[in-house]
Amino acid sequence: MRIDPSKLSLDRPVSSLDPNRGTHEEAAEWLRYGPVVPVALPDDVRAWAAMSARAARTVLDAHPDLSSDPRHWGAYTRGEIPAGWPLLNLIVGESMLNADGADHRRLRRLVSHAFTPRRIDALAPRIHEITRELLDGLERGGPGVVDLKEAFAYPLPLLIICELFGLTDPEEQRRLRDHFRTMLSVEVSGAERQEAAVGQREVLARLVADRRVAPLGDLTSALIEALDDEDGRLTEKELIDTLEIILLAGHETTVNSLTGTVLALLTHPDQLAALLDGELDWPAAVEAGLHWNAPLRTLFMRYALRDTVLHGVTVRRGEPVVVGLAAANREQRGAVPARFDIRDSRHYERQLAFGAGPHYCLGAALARLESAIGLSQLFTRFPATRLAVPESELVPVISTAMNGLTALPVVLRPASA
Ligand code: HEM
Questions:
Q1: What ligand 1 atom has the least distance to the C-alpha of 357?
Q2: pLDDT tens readout for residues 358-407
Q3: Which member of 39, 146, 262, 358 has the greatest number of CB atoms within 10 A?
Q4: Which element (helix H / strand E) includes 45?
Q5: Does residue 353 carry a pLDDT above 70?
Q6: What would the mean pLDDT of 31-57 be, rounded to a whole number?
């Protein structure tokens, strides 16, 4: 039931962005009202939600009236957002994610050196090695049910980001992982989340201090070099914020990409068989998986610099706009209904899992590479793997931002089993 867009206002949200609910119900429900609708986020914080693919692109494609900088968010600057608000860690901090224009280009350019196709390709042997070691560990564990998220999908991207940063101490890696989990959890108190945020910064500050004394060929050393340049291109705070944002943007998203695509393949065994026969290729499977189960359910946020009209609704100056990436991906395209279909690229070309416009994911090539290596090694080694519980018993993570599973219990089986 489409509502006249001029009647929509943040004072009357059509729905709430419920961390307990799945993307697909949300997509179906909200798209009924229109492409841009007012919603209530946790703690009744209000935002506009762009849910159709067209509306998502309008918002993301360098819209002149929308900013990524939370200092333009009216409710935030007026002090109306509670200190421990679950999404605050995602959207404050001086990093490229929250910067616009020349500032954004400066921060992005410095980091983009670490993400050139050559640098990413050079990481491939280490990604293969880390993947192999994780799978060796699973094989040593013997037969039985294993939580593939905990044992494989969670550690793989974290270890790869640590590799990128040059964070090699396993104890520090473990601390980072624990703080990180807590920071993103909606099941802990605001105070615990803040404490975890401090702990995470401490790990990164120690890494920066180490690399200052002994630089290596890693991203941290390269950023320090930029910081120490005569023209002071990057401040110390920006440096730690940047490492933090890479971790935030690059970890859980890739975890969800891996688990989401594993699930899609286990529930579409004909396509898995075609991959194993070499009839389909793994990068296409990754793409189809990203489209079907976009790892980032909702993108936070953009803020109106002035009153602006988006697909018929008036967004007032200072109001925030979120983008429903998962919903936009699953929208029917003309006569083509959304489905997981590796064979037919019409389903997943121009998908929005990595965003669009100037903030398009800097780590997309890395995420695609590690997902393709992770999935191909996993299923080549354990081709007869099956879900250990019915699909309906899998529990989604409680999150307004992420589209993932709390666990992915499987029975890992080699071909002969
Ligand atoms: C499947 C995995 C991933 C998904 C779905 C994903 C998704 C996204 C999306 C939607 C954005 C746009 C944010 C915005 O417009 O505000 C983004 C930005 C970003 N991503 Fe990713 N990402 C993934 C993996 C990674 C990895 C592996 C890294 C790095 C190790 C990374 C680093 C970044 C950075 C630095 C940005 C900020 C770019 C900017 O603001 O200019 N991402 N990502």
A1: 15
A2: 999 999 999 999 999 999 999 999 999 999 999 999 999 888 888 999 99
A3: 262
A4: strand 45-50
A5: yes
A6: 91
Single out the residue of 225, 218, 233 nearest to residue 161, CA to CA: 218
Q: Do residues 152 and 134 touch, judged by C-beta distance below 8 A?
A: yes
CA 89, 183, 194, 243: dihedral to nearest 10 degrees? -60
For 252-264, what is the mean pLDDT? 96
Among residues 99, 100, 91, which one has the least CA distance to residue 45?
A: 91
Between the CA of 293 and the centroid of ligand 1 the distance, in Å, is: 16
Q: Taking CB atoms and a 6 Å cutoff, what residues make up the pocket around ligand 1?
A: 60, 68, 96-97, 108, 161, 245-246, 249-250, 253-254, 257, 295-296, 299, 353-355, 359, 361-363, 366-367
**Per-residue pLDDT for 346 more than 90?**
no
Q: Count Cα atoms within 13 angstroms, Cβ side, for 362.
A: 26
Are 324 and 348 in contact by the 8 Å Cβ rule? The answer is no
Find tokens 């100037």 and name the residue. Answer: 358
In contact, 111 and 246? CB cutoff 8 Å: yes
Q: Count Cβ neighbours within 10 Å for each residue of 77-116 and write b for 16 or more, e otherwise.
A: eeeebeebbbbbbbbbbbbbbbbbeeebeebbebbeebbe
Listed residue (371, 133, 379) closest to 271, CA to CA: 379
Q: How far is the first Cα of the chain from the last one, in angstroms, to the nearest whole number?
A: 51
Q: Ligand 1 center to residue 110 CA distance, Å?
A: 15
- Quote the CA–CA distance of 383 and 415 in Å, as a whole number: 6
Mean pLDDT score across all residues of the chain: 90
Tell me which H or E stretch contains 262. Answer: helix 252-266
The yes/no answer on whether domain 5-411 falls in CATH 1.10.630.10 is yes
Amino acid present at 330: R
Does residue 417 register a pLDDT over 60? Answer: no
Q: Output the CA 22–ligand 1 centroid distance in Å.
A: 21
Residue 315 β-bridge partners: 308
DSSP 51: -
Whose C-alpha lies nearest to ligand 1, atom 15?
359
